[in-house]
Design goal:
1 helix; 0% strand; mainly alpha; 67 residues
Amino acid sequence: MFEYTVYTCIKKILLQTNLHLSREISDLKAQLLEMKKMMKISFDLQMDIQRSIRQEVAAGIAAASGG
């Protein structure tokens, strides 16, 4: 009887721990996905800024050279 009770308690603890870990992993996956989205937005913004700077520099050089 005692062994069954201990076994049942351990099983219950393991199930609760697994459930908790599953939730934590799901949360981490969601956070990772959000970070990936933010990185993509940041990268796209950086590319747009670089393109804009190149255009401004090209326009400045063209204006300075009389073109």
